[in-house]
DNA sequence: AGGAAATATATCGTGTGCGATATAATTTAG
DNA sequence: CTAAATTATATCGCACACGATATATTTCCT
């Protein structure tokens, strides 16, 4: 017979290790990203731009699962650092066009070594990493289906 | 031959879905925890106390992988809400003793339904949940071995 | 015993994340 | 064809997380 409080024990939670691992990995990134003058969230934003060159805030929002209340101040910081431009979209003045500066483009080469450094800090087998990856995206997909 | 930028693509990152899933689940908790007047971090703190009744900040810190700069203000909020007491440890005046108030103890019964509600929001099979759980703790253990 | 090192907690400043709401531009419906 | 609904972004207030540092107490070493 289970104690009715069994579900409330910290060691029976799935969210807690998810949250802790996420915090842990971002802490591990910090010394690497400091060299690029980027925070973790700024780094994933730059990753999107290194693939796309130019994007609206709405598209960035759905790529990163973050909303304007997080992105707007973050983008302003990236402008201040000289990594991106922000312009109005000529065809829809509600919308903005985010694009890389030359400096932002250069930064990609300085960032090339970051993923490998991080992989060695996590220390999972390739098989475990793939399984983890798939399960995490499975959770994220439920999210998008439910229109969150 | 792989593009040297392959590792920099967002879809090749493991950290990004970890971070996004962690944010997502905490967002899902919010409406449930609002009813208890708790944030997610306050909730996991209360979980520790529901199991232990009394703990030092140092022990809490190592249970939650959070440091005093996060915990000190958070504990103050829980005091203001009437859920915990904070007293000096008589035997070591550097240290504090965190304990539940009667109201804090009652809250445990109001929280009993939260874990089941959350489990249904995540939507993994039991097998996937166990695998995910083990892999996450594997990552956290490396962390503690490395004395982070 | 007494000064130095270690330990426990607190404080500071920065940058997220979030729900709620505001504003401005565009689209839609009657 | 215009008023209402929708959309894209911005702003506000709150609560984390974090590294760095400060303070107070205890322990350790000689």
Q: Can you tell me about this structure?
A:
The structure is a homodimer of 148-residue chains. Chain A has 148 residues and is mainly alpha-helical. The first copy, chain A, has a single domain (14-119), classed as Winged helix-like DNA-binding domain superfamily/Winged helix DNA-binding domain (Arc Repressor Mutant, subunit A, Orthogonal Bundle). Helix content of chain A is 63%, strand content 11%. Chain A contains seven helices and three strands; from the N terminus they run H-H-E-H-H-E-E-H-H-H. The first copy, chain A, has helices spanning 15-34, 40-52, 57-64, 68-80, 102-111, 114-122, 126-145, and strands spanning 54-55, 84-89, 92-100. Chain A has a three-stranded antiparallel β-sheet with strand order 1-3-2. In chain A, a hairpin with a 2-residue loop joins strand 2 and strand 3. Chain A is globular, with a radius of gyration of 19 Å. Chain A starts with 14 loop residues before the first helix and ends with a helix. Residues 143-148 of chain A have low confidence and may be disordered. At the A-B interface, helix 1, helix 2, helix 6 and helix 7 of A face helix 1, helix 2, helix 6 and helix 7 of B. The structure holds a DNA duplex (30 and 30 nucleotides).
